[in-house]
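Example 503.
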Amino acid sequence: MSVRVRFAPSPTGALHIGGVRTALYNYLFAKKHNGSFVLRIEDTDQTRFVEGAESYIENALSWAGITPDEGVSFGGNFGPYKQSERKGRYKEFADKLLAEGKAYYAFDTPEELDEMRERLKEARVANPQYNSVTRMQMTNSLTLSEDDVKARIEKGDPYVIRIKLPRNEDVRFKDIVRGWVVVNTATLDDKVLLKSDGMPTYHLANIVDDHQMEISHVIRGEEWLPSAPLHVILYDFLGWDRPEFAHLPLLLKPDGNGKLSKRAADKLGFPIFPLNWIDPVGSELSKGFKEEGYLPDAFINFLALLGWNPGGEKELFSMQELIEIFSLEKINKAGAKFDIEKAKWFNEQYLKGREDEELAEEFVGLMDQSVEQGKALAIVNALKERVTFVHQMVDAGRFFFEEPTVYDEKTVRKKWNQLAVDKLLGFAEKLETRENVSKDEAKEILTSYLSEDETPLGRIMPALRLSLTGQAGGPDLMAIIEILGTKEVVKRIKVAVDVLKIN
Ligand code: GLU
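Predicted structure in complex with glutamic acid:
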């Protein structure tokens, strides 16, 4: 049997990072088994429709490099891939269940449903449900006569179709992540399958589509586990083979206390969406991982390990490597703590590995002045191991373009002394006669000058850095000299000597 999996988001807002992880695991599993990864838009709940959400989902997956084989914008033989366009396909199955006594019409008004819940609450029922017991007190085709039901339907009374669950039966299925799951139908309610507007609910549409799209494995978030027994019953009722199930662990807040929510992420100051999202209602902007400066491969690597553990020490995996080693069996049962510091670490690793040419181009794009190509290359090379995000190079590299106006106070106090000043001026004199120097030449000139009277390099390096950058730390000093050029270096040394008091 060929592997066919799907990612089935509802376009109700921006795609949460947990959704991207679900898509990623589906994608990895499909690619590993030469199968197909389907993107299906589950938009049956029109009241929750959010403008722009569908294209956001596609853009986010595209940025992350998770490319569907089939979907609204990708084609495929199992379309349409949007549930609202499949509207006509579901009723037939609700009707089949009705005809076989596995579903029933229910005419209860919202007020009657409320009343029922109130009544049950008063009777101290913890979890009031429309179920095998309570359904016998409600207005439905199980309690009304056949003629009455017919008359109501002909009259146009609104109705829904509910599943008729067996009263007391164990439903079992094996989840690849969680093992055997057993749930008694007494704890479930008779969920609505077809709504009064003729639209299917998520449950009916989901299993009809999974069946018709020949989905072999349903890989989705743990929040759908409570729905799985109902889905299993529906497969059995309709006489269809069940797919395999794998329910993925929740993403937890960094302290492990509860689900990672947008609220929690906002509070802790990190993104939760892959791309920027502007809420269509309040126009509030939520920053995305992309816009924060995360690289897609770092983001994917980080996400892949949130809830899945290939074993061993290795942490850096390309998409191709992930595909090769991915397996559903190695997904953890326990929730995965979200650690943004780890995401940053991955970004640093991938940033270091990027080509200078590419980085230079991005860097130049971020600068508000023109930067000569050779200089940009040298700057990104000097800085790429020192920042988490490319955009941080703008600030970290400001001193390459502007001479310091402030000097690190502690370094002045501790390292700026007569010896340093003398040596810096002596070094400046040596440089003055030279055209620009490479970092090796700069080093050579400095060390041979200092060796004349055996001044240790360490005695003047902090002062030299201070005079050139104003800072106590930073990239390789010799690279800075090469990039600034001898004229600028000499000038900066002289300015520092002029403005700083000797300690
Ligand atoms: N439409 C559901 C969602 O928004 C899909 C759940 C599933 O994968 O079955 O996540």
